[in-house]
Write a structure and sequence with these properties.
Blueprint lengths: L17 E4 L7 H12 L5 E5 L10 E3 L14 E5 L16 H16 L5 E4 L4 H8 L6 H9 L5 E6 L2 E5 L9 H4 L2 H17 L7 E5 L14 H15 L3 E6 L7 H4 L4 E4 L2 H11 L5 E5 L5 E4 L16 H19 L1
Parallel strand pairs: 1-2, 1-5, 2-4, 3-4, 5-12, 7-10, 8-9, 8-10
Antiparallel strand pairs: 6-7, 6-11, 11-12
Helix pairs in contact: 2-3
Keywords: Cobalt, Cytoplasm, Magnesium, Metal-binding, NAD, NADP, Oxidoreductase, Pyridoxine biosynthesis, Zinc
Family: Belongs to the PdxA family.
GO molecular function: 4-hydroxythreonine-4-phosphate dehydrogenase activity; cobalt ion binding; magnesium ion binding; NAD binding; zinc ion binding
Length: 337
């Protein structure tokens, strides 16, 4: 298991409440919010920003006026900071009329964490298609929108679970476009942001980062590709000379078994599936999406809206619970730094 911070013993949690955005109300977000509150009780305070009408029938909740009221809500009730929506929520059928309210709920959460009223943000899944069609949403997803709200030019996506932290350098692009997108500048920026976040947000004083190659067998000495020699290795050598603890480029197929994972605190992979396949194999239900490089903490469950099971009461809250817990630990580490 990877250490979340150097040392031993229980990790500290943030004292302030976490803002949980409602996400797409026609998905499983409202259901897993209620389930997470029931599972966590008051030991990890969070409040839900959304319309109480969208919670599953019979859900126990209590309306709050400010985030600070969260601590006064009984453990069996979900603290709700009301955010009115125009339309009701029909499970599995997103409403274009609600799209703008989904976006403004995210903006409201950012404003609260920037004001110090919340210690971190955890975002429930959104439907990018619904936001594009209903609100003219101009961003590829949550991450880019949050970066824009924060005034940050570049952020990094990390997927994390107790056994693995992994960062893809290139993300949502076609595989055929990866070699051209994989520039020394992008790789260096990704490594710097990852390194800084491991120190600031995970409390690891001297992070160990393993880096994959792009090609099979990390290029096999050039027989299977030149990116390892011409792009990856020079960046690693330059940053290692500055004092970063970097290894690689490693063949990706040998980097994610248990013995290999014990030798690093995070792995940086070259493309989406190279990073996400191992973590989803190791811990499909408990993976957390973390945005590195923001001036505040943001986590999210590593799954989508799950329209196919919305409203059936069978959604698994494990990833959301893990995301809330990781947000709290990260916020405490940043505050302590």
């Amino acid at each position: 298991m990877l250490p979340s911070a150097q040392g031993s013993g229980p990790l500290p949690r943030a004292t302030g409440p976490i803002a949980l955005t409602c996400g797409e109300p026609a998905g499983i977000g409202p259901e897993i919010a209620v389930k997470a509150r029931l599972a966590l009780g008051s030991r990890l305070p969070f409040f839900w920003i959304g319309d109480p009408r969208h919670l599953p029938p019979g859900s126990g909740f209590q309306v709050i006026r400010t985030p600070s009221d969260t601590v006064d809500v009984p453990p069996g009730l979900l603290p709700v900071l009301p955010h009115p929506f125009p339309d009701a929520a029909v499970p599995g059928r997103p409403s274009g009329g609600n799209a703008t309210a989904v976006v403004t709920a995210i903006s409201r959460a950012v404003a609260l964490v920037q004001a110090g009223a919340a210690s971190a943000i955890c975002t429930a899944p959104i439907s990018k298609q619904a936001l594009h069609e209903g609100a003219g949403f101009a961003f590829p997803g949550h991450t880019e929108f949050l970066a824009s709200l924060a005034g940050v030019d570049r952020v990094v996506m990390m997927l994390a679970c107790p056994a693995l932290r992994v960062v893809p350098v290139t993300i949502h692009i076609a595989l055929e476009d990866v070699p051209a997108a994989l520039t020394p500048e992008l790789l260096e920026a990704t490594l710097r942001i990852t390194h800084a976040a491991l120190i600031r947000d995970f409390g690891i004083a001297a992070p160990r980062i393993a880096v994959t190659g792009l090609n099979p067998h990390a290029g096999e000495g050039g027989a299977m590709g030149q990116q390892e020699a011409h792009v990856i290795a020079p960046v690693l050598a330059r940053l290692a000379a500055e004092g970063m603890r970097l290894t690689g480029p490693h063949p990706a197929d040998t980097l994610f078994h248990a013995a290999a994972r014990a030798r690093y605190d995070a792995a940086v992979a070259m493309y989406h599936d190279q990073a996400l396949i191992p973590i989803k194999t190791i811990d499909f239900a408990g993976g957390v999406n973390v945005t590195l490089g923001l001036p505040f903490i943001r986590t999210s469950p590593d799954h989508g809206t799950a329209f196919d099971i919305a409203g059936q009461g069978v959604a698994d809250p494990s990833s959301l619970i893990a995301a809330l817990d990781m947000a709290s630990v990260m916020a405490a580490a940043r505050a302590a730094g």
